[in-house]
Amino acid sequence: MTRTLDHPELADVTLQQVLEALVDPVRRRIVTQLSESGAGMSCGTFDATVSRSTLTHHFNVLREAGLIRQSYAGTTKLNTLRTEDLEARFPGLLRALLDATG
Amino acid sequence: MTRTLDHPELADVTLQQVLEALVDPVRRRIVTQLSESGAGMSCGTFDATVSRSTLTHHFNVLREAGLIRQSYAGTTKLNTLRTEDLEARFPGLLRALLDATG
Predict the structure, then answer these.
(1) ipTM, two decimals
(2) What pTM did the predictor assign?
(3) Looking at CA atoms only, how far is residue A73 from chain B in angstroms?
(4) Nearest to B16 by CA among A22, A75, A42
(5) How far apart (Å, rounded) are the C-alpha atoms in residues B12 and B7?
(6) Which listed residue, A11, A92, B10, B67, has the most CB atoms within 10 A of its CB?
(7) Quick check: A23 and B20 CB within 8 A?
């Protein structure tokens, strides 16, 4: 059985959802780590000071906002930043936010 | 008597406060109108569908976050966007947000 996860189409990604996702500092840290890694990262490899279930919630928020793509690799969920999609939807925004996060 | 209002120094402006301010769509509309006007606007000239007291609250949040400067011109409060300050603090961020707000 193939499990799939819902991702918003690019045109349906809203600035409101992106900002609601990124107003949370833990979620900004996740996005920063994904950007620095440049590759898919499994949920367990993130450096976060929150519980696993809280982390899962944060990943769901980021996915539903259109910021990350999640896919299954066996039993592991891999996360990648939707860098090009976001650049197409909101030019310059992700880069400026990542730079500002430092 | 000269009345003055507190404004954060540029170095004290945080991304967290900026995002908390701009996650609110009414505050984004205020910032957009200020950007389009390019000049100081009094609180009463804003096109907003909220009460005067709510609007005053939004302006306070924007000022405390470092996004706007407020000054008195007689009994009127004039609001200007801290465009150059923000560009120096978080390059590209305000422009990308304004473009994304559309």
Answers:
(1) 0.91
(2) 0.92
(3) 34
(4) A22
(5) 10
(6) B67
(7) yes
